[in-house]
Design a protein that fits this description.
- By secondary structure, the protein is an alpha+beta fold.
- It has two helices and ten strands, in the order αβββββββαβββ.
- Strands 1, 2, 3, 4, 5, 6, 7, 8, 9 and 10 form a ten-stranded antiparallel sheet that branches.
């Protein structure tokens, strides 16, 4: 009976240690990434056929890599979110995406981005710009840092 209890305790310790080590590796994979806590907006999309697509408004195509392993994106008239991690420098992995499904206006890059965007697998930061690639059909995205403007405080009366 004692031997059975010892084996059970040992198995429990191994299971807890394994789970803790695995979650620590996952945590470290996004904490160590240079993408951690950054926000970007689309400059252009270079399609596999060499066609270049430039957004009419960069602020409608953004991606933010949270410090908590979550990623949020705006793709024209829709919003999406997922998890992200970077197990190695230059490598990018996303979880399943959830998104809104509004119909975007003609000329939107929405459909093209949603079709290929989730397949991004690699990244590089060069000259302050983020380049994402690894899509099934080829091509890449170029993004620039996004600056979030704070609202101005309004003064009233004699302030």
């Amino acid at each position: 009976m004692k031997m059975k209890t010892i084996r059970l305790m040992l198995a429990l310790v191994v299971a807890i240690t394994s789970a803790t080590t695995s979650s620590e590796r996952t945590l470290a994979s996004w904490q160590a990434s240079e993408l951690n806590g950054t926000s970007w907006q689309l400059v252009k999309l270079q399609a596999a056929d060499e066609t270049t697509h430039v957004p009419d408004d960069k602020s409608k195509y953004t991606i933010t890599f949270g410090r908590d392993g979550r990623v949020t994106a705006r793709v024209d008239c829709n919003r999406s979110s997922s998890t992200w991690r970077s197990p190695r420098s230059g490598e990018l992995q996303f979880g399943s995406w959830s998104r809104t499904h509004a119909k975007c206006p003609p000329g939107s890059l929405h459909d093209r981005i949603v079709t290929e965007g989730a397949a991004v697998r690699t990244y590089v930061i060069k000259d302050g710009h983020l380049f994402l690639s690894g899509m099934r059909a080829g091509g890449w995205y170029e993004l620039e840092p996004r600056t979030i403007q704070k609202p101005r405080s309004s003064k009233r009366g004699g302030d």
